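Example record used in the benchmark description.
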Amino acid sequence: MKRRLFIFLTLVFATILLVACAGATDTTTTDGADTEANEDTEILVIGVDDKFAPMGFRDEDNELTGFDIDYARAAAEYMGVEVKFQPIDWKTKENELSSDRIDLIWNGYTITPEREEKVDFTKPYLENAQVVAVLEDSPIESLEDLEGEVIGLQALSSAMDALEANPIYEKVAEVTEYADNVLALNDLKAGRVEAVVIDEVVIDYYMAQEEGTFRVLDEGLAPEQYGVGVKKGNTDLLDRLQKALDEMNEDGTAAEISEKWFGEDKILK
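Model output (structure tokens):
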């Protein structure tokens, strides 16, 4: 009888241990920060392109950094939530959002009429433009000089929309699409394309990093604005996020982040 009681108590104790261990979980964000799980704290999953400097990219330690990363983290503090940054294939960003694999698209995400049909946006927070980058010693001086040339750009980005809207699109020889801007610029340096259509804030960053390598044509393709994308119909999250962004504008937090990355306050008020 004692042996049976001992076995029974042993099994009960083992079961309690298993249950306790199962409950002691922790959450790891994709940028390497380990945080103890808190069932009472909301976690927002933010989809990013982690090769989109200076908005969101990997530093020398492979940690996520950039203007939008800092901006999102600050907004999360105002909202009382935690964030998890999820690198995604930028070509599938709207699908990631609509399928609830991410909660926000926040990484130099241009507001366009086509996207507004699929996604709800915050108010614009940053001005941008699509420009044409060439090598410093390129003979290309104007958009008309792109006739017959091979052009590179990031796939399913607003760069393609801007190029297609310009008459020069019908005259270029070919448009090569890349998974990210880094690959496009590498091919530009290698001579596999003659020009790259790219976000102005992005090429400005790379021109500062690689002085004397690139230059931008005086003629731009299209002005645009960045916003944060929220799943269509999720007005609760959109309103809470916008409230946080508005508060950051009012108390100067947004301006500080902008000055850190751009050397000036570029935040739209």
